[in-house]
Amino acid sequence: MKLDENEYRLDFFKKNNYLRKICENCKTPFWTTDQKRTNCADIPCSDYDFLDLNIGKLNLSVSEARKTFLKFFEKNGHTIIPPKPVIARWRKDLYLTIASIVDFQPHVTSGLVPPPANPLVVSQPCIRLEDVDNVGITFGRHLTTFEMGGHHAFNYPDKFVYWKDKTVELSKQFFTEELKIPEELLTFKESWWEGGGNAGPSFEVTVGGLELATLVFMQYQIINGEYIPLKLKIVDTGYGIERLAWFTQKTPTAFHAIYGNLVYTFFKKLNQNYVDEELLKAAARFAGRIDPDNPETIKIHREIVAKSLGLKTEDVEKELLRAARVFQVLDHTKTIALMLADGLVPSNSGEGYLGRLLIRRTLRVLKFLQSDIDLNELMKEQIEFWKEDFPQMQKNKDYILDSIENEQEKYKEILSKVGSVASTLAKKSNITTEDLVQIYDSNGISPDIIADELSKKGIKVDIPFNFYAIVAKRHQSAPIKGEKEKQKLTPDIAEFAKKFSSTEKLYYKDQYQRDFTAKILGIYKNYLILDKTVFYPEGGGQLGDTGIIKFQNNEEVKVIDTQKVGDVVVHILDKEVQAKEGEEVYGEIDWQRRYRLMKHHTATHVVLAAAKKLLGEHVWQAGAEKTPEKARLDITHYKMLTPEEIKELEDMCNYVINDRRPVKAIELDRMKAEMTYGVSIYEGGVVNKPIIRLLEIKDWDVESCGGTHVSNTSEIGGIKIINTEKIQDGVIRLEYVAGDMVSNYARKLEDTLNEVSKDLNTSVDQLEIKLRRTLQDFTKVKQELSEYKKFFEEYAEKQTITEKVEGTDIILKILPAEVKDDEIIKNLFKKLTSNTEKTYVISINNNIVDIACSKDLKVDNIISMLRNKGGKGGGKGTYGSITISNKNREEIINDIKDEIKRSLH
């Protein structure tokens, strides 16, 4: 879009004597009160001159910078709201919280629901991994985790809050009054912002080379390349809390300002000598000259630093690389702690993939530093340092440390595969970046490890400098997050249903109502739409209801399934019927089936809440299904549950059942629900509605849900977990039964016990004793059999015929015909072909020919010959097996001898 300079010509600038200038370097317009300024005061047009500015007496930590920011805007009419987790659970298309505006997308920014306050201010921890490879290299300009201070105003057509002039005025006041920055040092650089389908003009606020804030005015929606003005215009600002701290402290690097004494602690724990602070400060001062997209600029930066201090470039390079790696570990461990504290479970997909990527990158950096420190030692330091700012770290400390321990073990397993993976890759004529990415995705092996292994084979591999950024970018978002909806209705049925208004949902008014009368709105083939219904349509993992519909001509038809299109319920009948619109019908659901579904659905809420309380807040619903027979719940968890944990989980669930907790559905404004209960209400998925339906189990669980439920936990009757399994990395499946299905499950177990008792010729009450004795007898027999086998193997080896094939130097060993045990044959093959040369060993019994050879020979020709003579089977290399029924033992042996002779001539 062509920028209109009038978008930036504010009354504020005019009234306060700001000048619009064009930067002599980047040619970008900016606003300033300094008549002499010729550049925009932003990198790379300016170095980090703020490090040498002798202004103000502030020395703000990150915590103090955050409080200063929030209190200023609160004093200026903004409501402080709490930040959201760094895992964007409320978004279907995003895994991590990357900006403060993400807190309000898409439901507030689309106008669907009002914001929790207007205007508001928040300090939102964010995670961005697209710059992960630059962390440390630029001495604080790039971080994987940072806090974005955002003050936001939502301007509706009928409610104006404030817009550009007020936003810039507030920014000026904050920097001059709170941070004591002389106004002539402030520059407002004109810019343009686009993201998430929205766009608008913006100002980048810079002082002495450091960008401290970005003021975005979201006023367009991008549709098919067109910029359409929004009715809801949003002030979207981002102040760098860590940068505010760095600006006021003027420490050698941003890491010193963020982590304080933790910097020195990490250097010591990583067994690294501290880097000279004058060197670090010089490196930071010129860091703006580094272009992350051009690795050559890093080399130039090191040369500039060396020249400014009169040092050798190679010495500067070595020291700054070492420092950068320590800073990477500092940055990454904090980000990992935040991710895990907010519920991320490392895995091979979704947000779990991003967490694992950062953990493994950190482990690799530790290897570069030649440090064998346990990563958990560093994690403990981060938790202790940040526990006041992020109390969830301390609260979930045990999970964080246990999860990291688990990941370190997995990483060790991965390193054992390096050799075989590298050998496979070495066969390729050209190893590309895509090959390295695929190896990382499928095996978790870093490209530099592969490169080291391949270098031993004389193969050179080019690794892109931004490898981890490439990988992270591919996995940072998804078109649809969560389970895919199964579409059971054909397009023509869906189009037919869209013609009608919303169905009145009687199953929400009274979930115990079994029958009803309603009017036909439409009928198409065997699909029926009524004005109201008690039939629940499939959704939220709960199957649709079945039952019967009676028409006025007394014809009774079965409802075999119930689906929905939008808010229209579609009854699927077992056959087509002749009926008219407006006709009244009688409907009745299969109550026994529905009631079992209600019990299993409510049981799912009970089990999920119990799992979170028992295993930790990282547990999140990854999928669920409720049927009349049983239910399943897939949860995010990093390891299998122990038998003791399963028992405790059952006990917790059944305690809540016996405690007769009330269960009720409540409807709340979306923002109020989020602010009251947190984003855990979206365990079952995110619904795009302004009013959401919550299910509350008193003092146990509150979660968004559209299913049908019992009104009291006691109605569930009981819960029995019948199966647990790991269905993918980081996801555990729980299967359970509730209500009368518990007795059905017990009956099946009882039948199994009776059958086993019958087979063992004993009673059920004596089964354990009889089984133990039987197992003891079995163990004894097994030992005796093993001894007999050993004896027979020795006998068979002595009876083996050994002869030299006539006219060759090949030895042929023929096992006795009475050797039929596969294990003995296998052992003899191994023994007779090991440490020998030019030896074949054959076994022939029951028309099966097994053949093995020493490593210097192959069985391929012999196998081919036997196949040509009617045999069936195969093999190659040093072993083969063929079934041949049209020849006797002597004929087969002669054929093999003849083939050996042929193959040598």
Automatic annotation (TrEMBL):
Its main location: cytoplasm. Residues 60-748 form the Alanyl-transfer RNA synthetases family profile domain. Its EC number is 6.1.1.7. Its cofactor is Zn(2+). InterPro entries: aa-tRNA-synth_II/BPL/LPL, Ala-tRNA-lgiase_IIc, Ala-tRNA-ligase_IIc_anticod-bd, Ala-tRNA-synth_IIc_core, Ala-tRNA-synth_IIc_N, Ala-tRNA_lgiase_arc, Ala-tRNA_ligase, Thr/Ala-tRNA-synth_IIc_edit. It catalyses: tRNA(Ala) + L-alanine + ATP = L-alanyl-tRNA(Ala) + AMP + diphosphate. It holds the Pfam family tRNA-synt_2c. GO terms for biological process: alanyl-tRNA aminoacylation. GO terms for molecular function: alanine-tRNA ligase activity; aminoacyl-tRNA deacylase activity; ATP binding; tRNA binding; zinc ion binding. Keywords: Aminoacyl-tRNA synthetase, ATP-binding, Coiled coil, Cytoplasm, Ligase, Metal-binding, Nucleotide-binding, Protein biosynthesis, RNA-binding, tRNA-binding, Zinc. GO terms for cellular component: cytoplasm. SMART domains: tRNA_SAD. Binds 1 zinc ion per subunit. Residues 746-784 form a coiled coil. It is an enzyme of class 6 (ligase). Signal peptide: none annotated. Catalyzes the attachment of alanine to tRNA(Ala) in a two-step reaction: alanine is first activated by ATP to form Ala-AMP and then transferred to the acceptor end of tRNA(Ala). Also edits incorrectly charged Ser-tRNA(Ala) and Gly-tRNA(Ala) via its editing domain. HAMAP family: Ala_tRNA_synth_A (MF_00036_A). Consists of three domains; the N-terminal catalytic domain, the editing domain and the C-terminal C-Ala domain. The editing domain removes incorrectly charged amino acids, while the C-Ala domain, along with tRNA(Ala), serves as a bridge to cooperatively bring together the editing and aminoacylation centers thus stimulating deacylation of misacylated tRNAs. PANTHER family: ALANINE--TRNA LIGASE, CYTOPLASMIC (PTHR11777:SF9), ALANYL-TRNA SYNTHETASE (PTHR11777). This is Alanine--tRNA ligase.
